[in-house]
Amino acid sequence: MKTAILLSKAPDGSQAGNSRGLSRCGHLAFGVAMWLAGLVSGLAERVPWTSSRIIGSPEPPAACRTEPAFPQLRFNESVALALEAQSGRWFVGQLNGELRSFANRPDVAGTETVANLRDAHPKLTQFLDFTLHPGFATNRFLFAAYTEAVGGSNRWVLARFTITAGETPRLDPASERVIITSHSGGHDGSCVRFGPDGMLYASLGDATSPDPPDALKTGQDLSDLLASVIRIDVDHPEPGREYRVPADNPFVNRPGLRPEVWAYGFRNPWRMGFGDGGALWVADVGWELWETVHRVTAGYNGGWALAEGPNPAVRNDVKLGPTPIAKPAASHPHSEAASITGGVIYRGRRLPAFRGHFIYGDWETGKIWALADRPGAQPVELADTPFRIVTFAEDADGEVLLADYSNKCGLYRLIPNADVGKVGEFPRQLSRTGLFADTAKQEPAPGVIAYGIAVPRWADGAISERWLAVPGRGTVTPVWNDDPNNRRWQFPSNTVLAKTYSAELNVGEAPSRRRIETQVLHFSGEAWAAYSYRWNEAQTDAELVGRDGDTATWVQKDATAPGGTRELAWRFAARAECLRCHNPWAGNTLAFNFEQLLAPSKQTDLQRLVQSGVVAEPERWDRPHLTPASSVAAPLEQRARSWLHANCAHCHRFGAGGSVASYFNFDAKLADARLLNHPPARGNFGLKDASVIVPGQPERSVLWFRLNTEGQGHMPHLGSRRTDEAGSRLVADWIESLGSARRPETDAAGSTSEALAVLRRAQKQPGLLAPAITAARSSTNAFVRELFERFLPDAERRRLLGADFDARLVLGLKGDARRGAALFHSDSGPQCARCHVHAGKGRTYGPDLTDIRRKFPQPAELLANIVNPSKQVAQEFQLHLVETKDGESLSGFVVSKAAGELRLRIESGETRTLRPAQVASDLPVAGSAMPEGLLANLTAQEAADLLAFLLGSPKSR
Fold first, then answer.
1. What is the distance of C-alpha 911 from the center of its chain?
2. In degrees to the nearest 10, what's the CA dihedral of 215, 216, 221, 222?
3. pTM value?
4. Does 66-416 match 808-951 in CATH topology?
5. pLDDT tens profile 303-352
6. Domain spanning 66-416 has what CATH number?
7. In the CATH hierarchy, which top-level class contains the domain 808-951?
8. Alpha-helical regions (H) of 390-536
């Protein structure tokens, strides 16, 4: 995570204090029991697991692998690396302030100290990067970025030093010339590079810890150097300072803006590199969801903290900077990257297919990618390494080296993988994994041990079974400390955790249980990988699901379901989707954790694992634990927060990738969890005076709405589609216990809040449910309909398209133009008439759609444009953001700019006329004003009806 360097994913340090452990006597008795059990188990030989065939990966071998570049060298937290070509010496910078050097020979056995900056700067906190001047052979200049404590605060320093010549170079501390300084406080970026134009470029982060995001609100603020890439001329300094601002910098002579800034809107731009054409590639460390790579030009705006890659509205309380937000060249979700490290443009010969590509990697996952310099190019994964990749460098031949910060602490070379094209032997059937002696009966193989957990997550009613398999005589070792973010288990290489999901297809009839899926987590020794096996119809074996996942549907017979049946739509998650939940911040293994296994109801399972010798005994057994909802004697809050932990905390905890920064992990202090009276970050769904949780009022709580809707707002987002009725009641009981249930005023009939209130009353008085269902079916409020659809028979439920659908589902249907017209003008659904006029009806904001068929005569063309509205944007409908000098923010389309006046049509349909003296800025915005996903909450037939209306003849319209 570059924790010491970046503070990009630092733990929050919160601890739970509301859980009950064993009594002192109970703990003593348990210890005696464990001692006796140990004596007994010690008499029997441990049964080792020797049948494992889960090794490697089913994916094709990567194009590259790594090898030690200098096998005999190790470094202490190396952060920077560069080759001085003329002398053939490498220089390595370490976090502690040491600069070391060694000869460029594979057999080199030692390094020499060039300098320790702490000798001249005792309060130096971090040495972050350096670069050699292009004329180093003659001027011997080295430019370095470091941080130091000064007067009770930290400052960032960019300085120039002189290096002596000869076989043993030395840095002269007296030669230091401070070039420029800035504030330091966490994210410091600090990449230093000379461009092909001879200018010196340096990156700076937002200078804060991860949370809250962009605490200084500097990402879009150019009055300082933070969150920026600066560009300065150090060879022709101005009088009185050590640099000159190039005249062609984008913000020169702009009042209030620092002229040194070349690009901005970055969170923590860690490393960057120049292409042959002068393009600057910057890797920016993300926050909760995305890691990004940017192809930067003058005036580039990376978006932070108005956006985090594709994730908009991280903060909505900051003003846009002087240029529009640009789209990253690449964005990686936290399932595949978690702390991006920029690199170099490849100029070598060993990897000819990747010449001219930007090579970069990730600190957390160890992956390395190549990205071509062309619009729309997608990253290609080159290698998956076990390293903490902190920086890249080029050797004299243009080949790529990387530095490992804290694993093996060496330098490694990227080379072609000789195994490319070979087919792996990873087991494609569950029966070939070696996990089961009898796969059909789910009888574990010798050495594979079953275990249970306190609070399984909700999986649409499916039942789970779990097994732990540790190869040979390896042992899982618990590592405990008081920081809940660092409590973990150490697993031997090739450990496997397996879970089988089964469902009752004829509820109440035996035998009707059907196995659906077996999920496998495999630890390679360096990282976890996730795989799914889909059970066959005969229930004899399961087949490996492809990397992109799959879906299946069954019909469950259940007398308690509306109509007597219930559809079970199952998603076999893609491997990347699995790792979104099984992420490092949630502990990777999720259910195999202290909170689950130390619960009194499951300590016998943990005892059995300890007695078998597969798991070492934890230091403490009386620690905070999860409590099942069925343990009614336990406090309500403990049971409700346990349910939320099991179902939500894998994403919604600090750093784990949930797009909403509320923390559901059990050990987070409730006051700090951003739940109570915290404004919702992704909309209020029509709830009145909404918060994530309004104490005492579930009907105002976005959390409770999300648990009950089965529309697009449903949570948990991954792993379930149905509402957990028992979980819904438990969470509502807890919310009501937190405060007064008073409602200051009655909501309008048919509002989302009123519907939630009715739903809550119906949980207590079931007789109220039937009339509420009837009312919801005729509601024009989609949020209301989706709250009650689960109570309808499957045949009567709306089948929504969702965010990602096959266009053939719509194009294969015959639409009804009359129904489409009603949909176009309704207040629910896509709400087209809010922005568009059709046949004289609607609001004049976006294009008049009366004759849209002339532009898009074919249904497929029009549908594609609605799904991806930014693909084609007419110039007259390019959105502009206008700031007035009075501080008013306006967005709309430019009607005209005549006689210096700006006429802007805003969303209300009215046209505002602004004089030049009123306009502070006028910025075009990339993309369409029309949002994506407008069809997600429609059925395929409704979408076909809408197309028929828009494309119909004048008579039919």
1. 40
2. -130
3. 0.69
4. no
5. 999 888 877 656 778 889 999 889 899 999 877 888 999 999 999 999 99
6. 2.120.10.30
7. mainly beta
8. none
